[in-house]
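hey so i finally got around to running the thing on that chain from the lab meeting. sorry it took forever, my laptop kept dying and i had to restart like 3 times. anyway pasting the input first so we r on the same page abt which one it is
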Amino acid sequence: MVSVLVVNDQSLQRLALRMLLAAEPGLTVVGEAADGDEAIRASAALRPDVVLMDSQLSRADALDTIRRIARPAARSRTPAPGFTDEVPTASRVLMLTAAEQEADAWAALRAGAGGFLLNDADPAELTAAIRVVAAGDAVITPGLTRALIDAVRQQRTVRPLPRTPGPRTLTGRERDVLIAVAAGWTNAEIAQWLSIAPTTVKTHVSNVLAKIGARARVQAVTFAYESGLIRPAA
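ok and heres what got predicted. didnt touch it at all, straight out
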């Protein structure tokens, strides 16, 4: 059962989402929140698998909320009565965004968001996206993919990938796997390319995520471009 926390500043929209998701087998809505502060506290208390968050929050508040939910160690706000923040537990964040706001997705991905879906998506697309994000994979719209490519191309500086020995240094095989992940390959395709078992690929992916401090493949893609391991075509 995938548990969901609904975050939306409109009560009618929260009700509609709750009713929609409650009727879907395998999904359960464990709570709702009207703003970023409520979302952070509810996420800490209820520990949902997925936080379904509308992007109508202000940009700064949305990014701060994503960071505090996806990276619980960053939480510092005082819990409200009835809530606890004693045991940080991360939830995956799925953003519902308007088409004209897709350009803000780069910052949100860096903050820890696990996926984006346009807010005019149909119910089947929404429920499928929630399951995908809950499983640790990414959901990104085609328009967002274009926005991310544009954002990468506009960057004037890139950070070199660490090459000196250390706990966060990627091995040669891990670099190969990260390059393939950033290219959008599945574990099965990577396994075939490297002539290794899919389970071994999964292990490499987990090791890469741990070393770069990412929680999902979408953040690994961001890291690959920002670090200079992959450079977009002109």
